[in-house]
Design brief:
The protein is of the alpha/beta class. The chain contains 14 helices and 20 strands. Helix 5 packs across helix 10 and helix 8 crosses helix 12.
Length: 414
């Protein structure tokens, strides 16, 4: 059976006849491209993900407990010195790498390009988010007499634009040999009937598979192999949109080494019990980040003997993994979450439909779902004013305005 027939059979089995109709109308390259795309789609997986959107979520009896952490500001001098020395040793030996997740567009900011190319209005002349991160890494390189390999995860949507932007800006003075771009995976979008959406380019519409896709993408693109060739032992993974992200925090790294764990994370304490952030906990004996919507109000307000929130450690996308941990997770299927979104598509008549209401499901996995594969995690509590200035919304909380204030105040204090 040739590949066209093979694809046609699959489309019949999975009730995607509308795609067969499209294939029959297409000719030449367009047809060939669509067939190549369809060969790569795991129809069984997409059907399972769609079927899950119809299931009632079972609330299993989960045992949720608070998680232990160390507060960076309260470490004893000797303890801090020991952690810093351990962390510094790894970085100086060239066994440390950084991954920046930069697959997103600046849509929520009302900005038309890749998020990393957004310019934050600091000190009058402004700095791009990529520029801020490059400066952070260059400072660490100077301090520890090394060059940290920098891996940047883009998406199909923004890869070319990101690459052109970095080249045009000469990688903000970073050594080009040590900047590697790789693309995250994508999954097809389906409508409320489980039918694949077709885009204007006459291909199946796909969207990035969430930040949890970073592990399998590192593996699939050969970046994990590249890290091994460089003898990397520890990898930091963070987002592109935190203007105060510390990507080479030797205290965090040293604490993870001392505690003999494979994963570690920086947290900041919740602003209040109702703040809409995911918080660290232990669930059924494993580390987990529980979404604010899943944490019962009573638990969100619980305090310990010293008056601290029991569930107050916010996940701020500031994570450390050993290379073995990344290898392990890259082979494991992470749980997918579905989001109901508005997406335009081409109907059977070839007409573009732009919906007013959400009409389709996007499937994504989250980086913190990987924590559950481990028995323990080391958490270092930082300070919001030192570690967390996210640029997410156009106005209000976590906006360019709040990030600018936090960034400028931080550097005034240094």
């Amino acid at each position: 059976m040739d590949k066209t027939q093979n694809v046609m059979e699959l489309l019949k089995v999975y009730n995607q006849e509308h795609v067969i109709n499209l294939l029959e109308k297409l000719k030449g390259n367009k047809k060939e491209e669509l067939i190549e795309q369809l060969i790569k789609i795991d129809f069984h997986q997409i059907k399972e993900l769609y079927d899950n959107t119809k299931k009632e979520i079972e609330i299993k009896e989960n045992k949720i407990e608070e998680i232990s952490y160390l507060d960076k500001a309260k470490l004893k001098y000797e303890q801090r010195e020991e952690f810093d020395a351990l962390g510094e040793d790894i970085i100086r030996k060239g066994q440390y790498a950084v991954v920046t997740m930069a697959g997103g567009q600046g849509t929520r900011l009302g900005y038309p390009g890749p998020k990393g190319t957004f310019k934050l209005d600091v000190y009058g002349k402004g700095k791009y988010l990529f520029e801020i991160l490059a400066e952070n890494l260059k400072e660490a390189n100077k301090k520890y007499d090394t060059t940290i390999p920098w891996y940047i995860m883009t998406s199909k949507e923004n890869n070319d634009e990101t690459e052109a932007f970095l080249k045009k800006n000469n990688y903000f003075g970073y050594d080009e040999e040590n900047v590697m771009l790789f693309m995250q995976g994508e999954l097809p979008l389906v409508d409320t009937e489980g039918k694949l959406l077709i885009g204007k380019d006459m291909k199946i519409k796909e969207a990035s598979d969430g930040n949890g896709g970073v592990f399998s993408s590192l593996r699939a693109t050969g970046m994990l192999a590249n890290m091994k060739e460089r003898n990397i032992k520890w990898i930091f993974i963070g987002g592109v949109d935190n203007a105060l992200l510390k990507m080479a925090d030797v205290t965090l790294l040293g604490m993870a080494i001392k505690k003999e764990v494979q994963i570690a994370s920086k947290s900041v304490v919740k602003a209040n019990p109702q703040e809409r952030v995911g918080v660290f906990c232990k669930m059924n004996g494993h580390p987990k980040v529980i979404e604010y919507s899943e944490l019962p109000e009573k638990m969100a307000e619980e305090v310990d003997s010293s008056g601290e929130l029991k569930y107050g450690e916010s996940h701020i996308m500031c994570n450390l993994f050993t290379i073995d941990a990344i290898e392990k997770v890259s082979k494991e299927p992470l749980m997918y979450h579905s989001a109901f979104k508005k997406n335009s598509y081409i109907d059977e008549e070839g007409k573009e439909i732009i919906p007013e209401e959400p009409n389709s499901y996007k499937f994504e996995s989250f980086i913190f779902d990987a924590f559950e594969f481990f028995d323990d995690i080391a958490i270092l509590r930082g300070k919001r004013e030192d570690d967390f200035a996210p640029v997410k919304n156009k106005d209000g909380v976590d906006s360019p305005k709040t990030a600018k204030e936090l960034y400028e105040k931080y550097w005034e204090r240094q």
